[in-house]
């Protein structure tokens, strides 16, 4: 039986690749996409998610909008660096038609709460943006934290952050939310920069999508080429772009892609280390460890799975 999944995205180029990975995985049933802010504003992100779902023929997957800014703030503006990496439209200036439908009237928070209540252990939530919506779901329902299973992209434990020496981008947007989630949720797997900066894509792979001659292949290639170019400037030593968000989906399908350590985690919310994800010293000796932090990844196996799933998905879209 397919595992139910909710993907919480700030679509974003690697978010788009994560949506495609989920759609290309028969082990998963994507019951909904929830839109958060981060790489883009919520309306831009949900617009992109709807358009991508339609491009791949999946108008059956509902899209819900989450809160538009961090817990401790009352507004949000896209950072210059986000715009540089993902483009103004969030998908590397790739042009795909607007979807014919709109976001659902129900909020992302209500959808998450209701889904955890209804499906329990059959469901995994994969947040690949700031953890604001998940924290709001915890607040909305006292049983949510104990019953939710989460695989999130965010944080860094054994490597520096990517927006500061301490902080990774998703966590940096809302450290208070991240701290609530790490301290409160009973089962969370952290897919951080420790592993996502080891899974890299180059134009050698995107050329294979281009060669398909399909609308889906063209979109994946155009968006990802933009992202690869940005990485050439921000992190030239890597030699490719980081497949952050798709790796979290990959691990939701197959946890053996990564090696994890069991540890109780927290997020610093004060001082110069604000946004750092680190072990919680107050729960160091607790017998139960609620977080599983990925520290190693089977790079070749993941890249093989990633290319197979996305290429098959894109091959099935109409010719350009
Ligand atoms: C994360 O930040 C966002 O820019 C990406 O989409 C990814 O979720 C990487 O730090
Ligand atoms: Ca993201």
From TrEMBL:
Domain Inosine/uridine-preferring nucleoside hydrolase, first and last residues per copy: 5-303
Protein name, UniProt field: Pyrimidine-specific ribonucleoside hydrolase RihA
Gene Ontology cellular-component annotations: cytosol
Alphabetized GO MF terms: purine nucleosidase activity
Gene Ontology biological process: purine nucleoside catabolic process
Keywords: Glycosidase, Hydrolase
SUPFAM superfamilies xrefs: Nucleoside hydrolase
Entries under InterPro entries matching the protein: Inosine/uridine_hydrolase_dom (IPR001910), IUNH (IPR023186), Ribo_hydro-like (IPR036452)
Enzyme Commission code(s) on record: 3.2.-.-
Source species: Corynebacterium glaucum
